[in-house]
Amino acid sequence: MTVVDAESRFHVLAVDDSIIDRKLIEMLLKNSSYQVTTVDSGSKALELLGLRDEAAESSPPSSSSPDHQEIDVNLIITDYCMPGMTGYDLLKRVKGSSSLKDIPVVIMSSENVPARINRCLEDGAEEFFLKPVKLADMKKLKSHLLKKQQPRKCQPQIQPEPEQRLEAPPTQPAHRPEEALAEVTADGATTAVSDCNGSNKRKAAAMEQQEGLTPPESTKPRLSNSSLAVET
């Protein structure tokens, strides 16, 4: 789909009591490939949008509901100074409707009054153009039209990670100083006894070895005096 085809889908409602200004804005919008519907008053604009003018509320109600939109309008561009209902009044009615409040509204005026401009922008107007309107102003409308057409993007929901609880290591029972000293003393005594027993065993083994090599004196033969005499 080309840019021209995309822009041709947008329908603009132009409201101006001056036929010259109305023809000019219609020409500029068509040259920008927009579909255009023009009316000469704010009350007629409300009728096309399905809203009734306050002055016509005393008349019998029409078959259409008050908030029913008769035509599919993507943007409203209206003159500020008009007899009966001004462009600011039309802005307030549109923004006060639950079914029309999302339609962008642009105000036009030949008078550069800062207080008027600020009031319109604060109350919901997208732009405020000074007359005569130029073709460059029409290009500004596209950003507001596309902004209203963009679908809302859903942000992915981030699931929180489960909290990991760190378990504390089991604590060792505290030893009292007296118990620790008793344990050290007992260990030391046991070690000393073991060393003594080992030393005694080594000494006993050495003595037994020496006794095996040297015969005891009781086993040697003894020579008596009588034996010595006989040999002589």
From TrEMBL:
4-aspartylphosphate, modified sites: 79
GO-annotated biological processes: cytokinin-activated signaling pathway; phosphorelay signal transduction system
Ranges for region Disordered: 144-232
Record-annotated Response regulatory domain positions: 11-146
Listed SMART domains: REC
Biased composition (Polar residues): 221-232
Keyword Transcription: yes
Keyword list, A-Z: Cytokinin signaling pathway, Phosphoprotein, Transcription, Transcription regulation, Two-component regulatory system
Coiled coil location: none
Function: Functions as a response regulator involved in His-to-Asp phosphorelay signal transduction system. Phosphorylation of the Asp residue in the receiver domain activates the ability of the protein to promote the transcription of target genes. Type-A response regulators seem to act as negative regulators of the cytokinin signaling.
Family: Belongs to the ARR family. Type-A subfamily.
PANTHER family (UniProt xref): TWO-COMPONENT RESPONSE REGULATOR (PTHR43874), TWO-COMPONENT RESPONSE REGULATOR ORR4 (PTHR43874:SF106)
Name listed for the protein in its UniProt record: Two-component response regulator ORR4
